[in-house]
Design brief:
Number of strands: 5
Distance between the termini: 82 Å
Number of helices: 2
Largest sheet: 3 strands, antiparallel
Strand content: 15-25%
Order of helices and strands: EEEEHEH
């Protein structure tokens, strides 16, 4: 059971800091909550990360595709180059 410590607790098992969340066995957590040393932490639904736009293939820059014929990728009008 997850609890949030309200007070400092130190003992042979270590130190528990106020404000921190700990996952403890249910019996130990219940004892700390009953003593007023901790409060139960309710499980929050996990929000998924926001989706980002992804590129879906195709040309993304000025570089020609690998293996493509550079003459077919030219931006110039073929009739202008023959004149």
């Amino acid at each position: 059971m997850k609890i949030k410590m309200l007070t400092l607790m130190a003992g042979p098992d270590g130190v528990r800091q106020p404000g921190r969340v700990y996952d403890l066995p249910p019996a130990e957590a219940a004892a700390l909550i009953e003593a007023g040393a901790a409060e139960k932490v309710e499980a929050k639904p996990v929000a998924s990360a926001p989706r980002t736009a992804s590129r879906k293939g195709g040309r993304t820059g000025d570089k020609p595709d690998a293996g493509a014929d550079p003459a077919t990728l030219s931006d110039a009008d073929p009739q202008e180059s023959q004149a």
